[in-house]
Design goal:
10 strands; alpha+beta
Length: about 190
């Protein structure tokens, strides 16, 4: 009961805090609504599901995943809030997701840092609007780690075999996420 009240209170605060992306380029179309990551205008955040720890940032608008990917160095090593469409979820435990934005085909890797028993993010989060918070990191991962993530995302053996050598990734170490599991979204152009 207390956890439910805390989650509802968090989502209520986010409804007023999270009012849009930093740029008009980032538009996520939700059931015909074309407002920039506007959770208040495009959906009732009280129906959103919180995962992990409580978000730390109390003000500011989320930055679109596409904007982060367009200027990675600008946002590196900073605590930021990001919005985007969930592109992929770890099939084994839901311990990571990939976020997509409307401007680029590249995705942002979000690794959840909070300890959890069982599954964290459900598979049905794919195609839904998410807001995550954490510290952005530009990182090189080993071939083995890259293959591990590819396997967890359901890639074929042929696709996994094509991963050779260290890989560069843009990673958000995130203890916090909220996801609108009530409806899937389409990315606007």
């Amino acid at each position: 009961m207390i956890r439910s009240i805390k989650v509802t209170a968090l989502l209520f605060v986010l409804m007023f805090v999270v009012t849009g992306c930093a740029s008009k380029k980032c538009e996520l179309a939700v059931a015909g609504c074309k407002k920039p990551c506007d959770t208040g205008g495009c959906g009732n955040t009280s129906k959103w599901t919180a995962f992990g720890n409580k978000m730390k940032l109390t003000s500011g608008k989320p930055i679109c995943a596409s904007e982060i990917l367009a200027d990675k160095a600008k946002h590196a090593d900073k605590l930021i809030r990001i919005c985007g469409k969930v592109d992929t979820v770890c099939a084994k435990k839901g311990c990571w997701i990939r976020l997509a934005g409307p401007i680029t085909s590249e995705t942002l890797f979000v690794k959840f840092t909070c300890p959890v028993n069982g599954r964290l993010v459900p598979m049905d989060a794919v195609g839904r609007l998410a807001i995550v918070e954490g510290v952005l990191e530009l990182k090189e991962i080993s071939e083995d780690e890259a293959r591990h993530y590819a396997e967890d995302s359901g890639k074929s053996a042929e696709e996994i075999a094509k991963i050779v050598g260290p890989q560069q990734i843009v990673k958000l170490n995130s203890p916090s996420a909220i996801i609108d599991l009530t409806k899937k979204i389409a990315l606007a152009d």
